[in-house]
Hints:
By secondary structure, the protein is an alpha/beta fold. The chain has helices at about 15-25, 30-40, 45-55, 60-70, 90-100, 115-125, 165-180, 180-190, 200-215; strands at about 1-5, 30, 80-85, 110-115, 125-130, 135-140, 160, 195. The strands form 2 sheets. A 5-stranded parallel sheet has the order 2-3-1-4-8, sandwiched between helices. A 3-stranded antiparallel sheet has the order 6-5-7. Strand 5 and strand 6 form a beta hairpin. Helix 2 packs across helix 3, helix 4 (about 60-70) packs parallel to helix 5 (about 90-100) and helix 6 crosses helix 7. The chain is globular and about 45 Å long. Bound molecules: adenosine-5'-diphosphate (ADP) (2 copies) and zinc ion. The site of zinc ion (ZN) has 8 residues, from loops.
Amino acid sequence: MRLILLGPPGAGKGTQAQRIVEKYGIPQLSTGDMLRAAVAAETDVGKRAKAVMDAGKLVSDDIVIAIVSERIDQPDCEKGFILDGFPRTLVQADATEAMLAAKGLDLSVVIELKVNDKELVRRVSGRYSCAQCGSVYHDSDKRPAAEGVCDKCGSTHFKRRPDDNAETMTQRLEVYYKETSPLIGFYYAKGRLKSVDGMADMDVVTGDIEAILGAL
Ligand code: ADP
Ligand code: ADP
Ligand code: ZN
């Protein structure tokens, strides 16, 4: 199973991807996570990407396409994978088609999570994650069961992303509508698109996604 989770920042892609990982045992390929790891490790790519990410703009197509292309060649991607936050431009979408075609692979489905702007700003403004395992939480929607302790790994250290603030979010949304939303038409025309109401509770969204995946 090879699927794409498509949606604006804060739509719930990472949250849902994590649940698909647990149920289906295929890896989540988040270009945002991979780029943040490169920034933290101060690699050449990380050094070039940091300012762009902090400004809420897109890292160049060449860089992200190279990262994904290398990643999907890893053995754990043989059974399939979830693309989270990639592709984000039509150039990246074309590159994805070419990458898969070259390996004789097919895309199973593209799932679009629909959420309105007001809710997206509310979600990213309250988002934080475990500094150790990366589990994602929210100030009001998803708090750890024991206050200040990660449900998954027990760590007591959490962090917030520098780009998860209202101003940068306005820029990220603009970029989404201009550069990424055309992919909705692109995949609809290919008969690959399924849309889900991302405004619903997390568990309801998970159920809707599982229904789509179960019917494949
Ligand atoms: P979100 O989860 O809020 O949608 P991501 O973690 O996917 O955000 O991405 C954070 C930032 O990383 C983006 O604003 C952008 O600068 C960069 N980035 C991530 N994926 C891509 C991509 N496919 N193409 C270009 N830039 C990307
Ligand atoms: P994305 O990867 O699309 O940027 P995330 O999965 O990181 O989005 O979710 C953004 C924030 O919203 C997180 O703090 C998460 O806990 C919260 N969240 C995710 N899905 C929902 C939902 N269905 N309802 C309410 N809050 C949600
Ligand atoms: Zn943790």
